[in-house]
Amino acid sequence: MRFDPVIKNFDYFLWGAFPEGPLGGLAMTILLAAVSIFLAFWVGLVFGLMRNSKNRIVRYVAMVYIEVVRGTPLLLLIFWFYFLAPVIVGYSVPELQTTVVALVVFTGAYIAEIVRAGILALPKGQMEAARGSGLSHIQAMRFVILPQSLRNMIPSFVNQFVSLTKDTSLASTIGVLELTRCAEQVSNRTLTAPMEIYLTILVMYFLICYVLTSYSRKLEKQLSRYQARDR
Amino acid sequence: MDRALNYQFDWQLVLSGEYADWLVSGVITTLEISALSLLLAMLLGTIVAVMRMTKFKPLEWVGLAFTEFFRNTPLLVQIYFWYYGSNQVLPEAVNKWLYAHDFEFAAGVIALTVYTAAFIAEEIRSGIYSIPKNQLEASRAGGLSFIQAYRYVILPQAFRIIIPPLISQSLNLIKNSSLVMVIGVMDIFYMARQIESYSFHGFEAFTVATLIYLSISLVVSLCINLYNKHFLRQISY
Description:
Chain A is an all-alpha fold. Chain A contains ten helices and no strands.
C-alpha cells in the first residue's frame, strides 16, 4: 500500500485548488448536493401536489414527469442535458450548471413521490376536519396538511440527500471538478496508487453518507411518536 | 447555434444498418451484465442477510460493515475501485484469469454485484423482521423445530413481502448498469455515445437508448403492480 500520493494530495481532495484556483473536491461535492437538494425540494413539492390534484390533466403531467425520470438512468439524463442545453439556450452552458439542472430534475421526481406518499399517509380526517372548520382547500393544505406531512417526510428527504450526494459523482463524467473527478486527476497524474486513491475517496463519501443515514434513522424514531393516526 | 438549429433528424440512420446492430449488441450487453450481476447479488445478498441475523457477533459485524459501507458510497467510485484496484485486492490467480478474459465486463459485474447485494441484504433482512415475532413463537410452541418454523411459517410469508422490493432493486440494477460504460463495457449507453461520435446524430441515438430503458422500467413496474394486486392481500398480520 502506498498512501503518499493520497497524503500529498489530500487538500486537493478536500477543496481542490481553492484559494488560488477553482473550488473542487469534497467541498464541491457537498455544494453541488446542497444546492441541488434545495432546488429539487421545490420542484418535488410542486409535482407531488400536482400528482395528487383532482384535475386529470395536471395529474397526468406530473405522472409522466415522475415516471419518465424515474425510468431513466441518471447518467443518461446528465448527457441529455449536456447535449440539449446549448440547443435550448443557444450558447454553451458550463458543465456545473448542466449538472445542477440534471440533478434537480432527477431528484425532483423522487421527492415528488415522497411528497405524494407523505400526503396520502396522513389520515383523511385531517383534511375533512380542516375543511369542515371553514378553511379553503389551499389553506387546509398550507396550514394543516403540509406542516404535518412535511415533518414526517424529513427522514425520507435526508435519505434522498444521501442518494444525491452519491449521485454527484456522476458529474465527473462530463468534467465537473468534484471529489471523484479530483481523484481521477490525481490518479492519472501519479499512476502509482489508483487503489489507495479510490479507497480514500470511498471512505470520504462513506463518512458523510453514513452520518446522514444514522441521523435520518434517529429522526424517524423520534418523529414516529408524534404522528397523527387513524383511530 | 446555427448548426444546432439546422439539425436534421435521421432516424433511419440509427434504426438500420451498422448503427442498429451496435444498439442491439449494446442491449444484449446491458441485459447480460444485469442478469449475471443480479444472480450473483441475490446469492451474496442472502449470505450477508443471514450473517446479519446470526447471533454470532463477529459475523454480524462483518455483515453490518458490508451493507453500510457499500450502500453509503457511490457506485461510480466503486466501479473505478474494482477496475483499477482489483490487482491489489483480489488474488493473483483470479486476476490473471480476468485479464485473459473480458476484464472490463468482469470488473463491472463485481462492482454491480457488491453494490446491489448490499441493498438486497437489507431488503431480505427487513422482510424477515417484518413478520411478527409471535409467529415464530407460536410455531415453536406448536412443536416445529427452529428450522421447520422458518421453512414452513416465516419464509413463505417473508418471500411475499420481499419480492416487490427485490424486483425494484433489479430495476435499479439495470439502470445502474449504465455506469459501467465509464470503464469501457459496451452497453446501450456506450453504443449511443459511439454513434454520437461517429455520426453526430446523438439525439436519435440517445432517444433510442432512453426509450429502451424506459420500456424496461415500465414493464417492470407493471409487474410489481400486478404482483401487489394478486399476492399482497393474502398476508396475515
